[in-house]
Write the structure tokens for this entry.
Amino acid sequence: RMVHTRHGDVRVTIEGSDDRHATVFVTYHDVGSNHNICFNAFFQIAGIKGRFEKCRAIHIDAPGHEDDAGPLTRPFPTMDQLGEQVAEVLDQLNVRTMVIGFGVGAGVNVLLRYAGQHPGRMFALVSVGGTRARCGIAEWINWSTIQVAMDLWGVSPWVQRCFADLNLSPPSKYRSLYRDYCDGVASIPKDTLEAYLRAYRGRGELPASAVAELKKIPMLMFAGGRLGGIWPIVPGWNAEAMAVDMYQVANIRLSTWIKVRSAGQLVTLEEPWELFRPIELFLDTLIPH
């Protein structure tokens, strides 16, 4: 369903248990993807397994990123405004319980901003390739290279491969998955894809309120083992270092971080089984049977 917010309409997809006592995940996807690309593989596995049968997932697509999306009709929100959209969506869905955030890449940053804007509404966070920091030099160069390429050639096959090289293992590992991911990138309208990229590239440091909230909530953080980058043009950035930085700021008594060596940064797509058991155990510590 489409949900109207002050910063534009967003597509929301709900799956899982309709029990009013169900554990609620709120997911937010990375740049160059949508909820289908980021989360379908994981929830297809999770949906048939015990602990997750009692969960509900609320997938929020960034404005204009849903399947068959048309062009944007208003300016794309800032990262802070995307966080405000999360709260408006949950209010309109009448979700009054605390939720577990589940973000990938830029989506983690959106959920952290939501948590800072609305203390006490996010119970815990699962982060895949997330960061609390502003955009670093290597990351800025990679995003800017992609943006210039899109300005020149649109979402060309080379641009699609750039996104894939940032997020996945080499295509020799999973050729069909690599190809399907590139097709997914191509399905997102160019102006929308570029707008989310610009918003994430231009992000500032997390507000103090978000950092304070980060210290209170349990977090499970994953980082892929492959250093993403548009090789050989520019080097990649170190997502592992970003995860460690966020872990050091978090409450380490409540938080864990895991490196998935066999995957690139989009672990939910490439190695969803590697996430399943740690998240299941994480749920057990949060919500005992």
